[in-house]
């Protein structure tokens, strides 16, 4: 084990219990596979000449992505030109275990679509998950660009800033890192420069119905004729205010909702004052997040402005996260609130498209990104369980107060705790729609619910009001018996996949992502003959390579996200693994993935052609109704 050998003449002078001498007697043995290694470990442990035998395990690195504005450790970096917030949440060590691939609802005033850190091909931004709402309706175009020229000063930048905190393209040697590296953003433009209440409610409904796992609400809204500082302004007193059923819907679908506590500086140290957190953060179904500064204090402005005083505290406050002078992506060359230090020119010079902003609107997306990591590790956990794992490892837990809640989240500790719940294995739910002529697969229960209710994206291009629910196919699961919200379909799956990139069998080779792509008739793409026969047709396909993603994109497909990880085909399979086949039915224009044991059946269904230069894409565990190990 130690390549530098001690010279023999010196070694004879050392006592056999001397640590330096003992290190000379360790050797590293390599075996062809884990089965042989386990047998030999047991055999060596019984050998009286061997004083110790153990596995050559790997220590925990704190992953530092290549994004130049992430580090927080040298003389060059200050509060204003590095991501102090990400470092304060222990995200570096969490990323060593999970990079994230959840579906996050981003209800704000849009994003800059052309931003290089928000439009990387490896990031699922340019997807079906985009819609713009006005005060009364959803627009027919899906542009969610913040569009400073069209919307006026003040409209551009905020949405790009919160989006970058949640899920900027990461480890791309550019700009900033996002909390959830590969999370898909379901981007809703709900007004600019201010959030429109009806548009926000429509956005909540849209993202929840189409399968979001986490919602970020970096805004405050009021009930009609009732200010949020009034303790009676809540969903108990106003149950029919549309905000309340929107939140109830999200809760029923088991969606984690995270919201900003407010910037009015009401720390609420008086117990009799109960409602100084803005709504919707004040709702008990929501995780309310207050703000901190770079020095670990509750954010309070030294020179307060109207409605910009500091972090709100109060009865429902759960956590606090970075709020003051937070660096992220911004709309290139625009300052959307210069007096409050928000925009491209705010803070130190860090290059066009990046800048700081301050407020609990920045705190909430940090926590939303961490929630995305947790839902990536185990998508079957409930929203209450996710909240519990967030608060139980926060800096002040189990102590709580109105200014801090339970304290600052610890992303790494929360991720480690969630990892213990499922060994990072989860079922890949499988579905088929005869009306759409499409197979669909997802690891996300909320997406499964969207499928069986006919809401999964993309929906049919025309006519848009037709209802095409999917049917579950495969083997029922003993340990997971119902999708959220009381769906009638029993969850079924054909295979199990991993939830993170970490290979449990080899530290040298990562697992490969299962990218999900989609197309529908009516998309701007080369003409597809099936659209003359079935104009409602949709196709989902899956690949494990970015080159495959690029090929499908060039054919008119959109990148939706990542549906877990599978064992790479370049390695020998582990016991119990089977090939994951990918076949194409030219009559249906449909791709399907399935275990090799189903090849004969799928061939009989017309799935006979290869997609690309191969008919299989990696190894998985077949589903027999229970966890593989």
CATH superfamily of the largest domain: Peptidase S8/S53 domain
And the CATH topology of the largest domain?
Answer: Rossmann fold
Q: Structural class per helix/strand content?
A: alpha/beta
Q: Which stretches of 5+ consecutive residues score pLDDT under 50?
A: 56-68, 72-77, 135-141
Strand composition percent: 15-25%
Roughly how many Å is the radius of gyration? 26 Å
Main sheet characteristics: 9 strands, antiparallel
CATH class label of the largest domain: Alpha Beta
What is the general shape? globular
Q: Tell me the span between the first and last alpha carbons.
A: 33 Å
Number of helices: 16
Query: Could you tell me the mean pLDDT?
Result: 84
Number of domains: 2
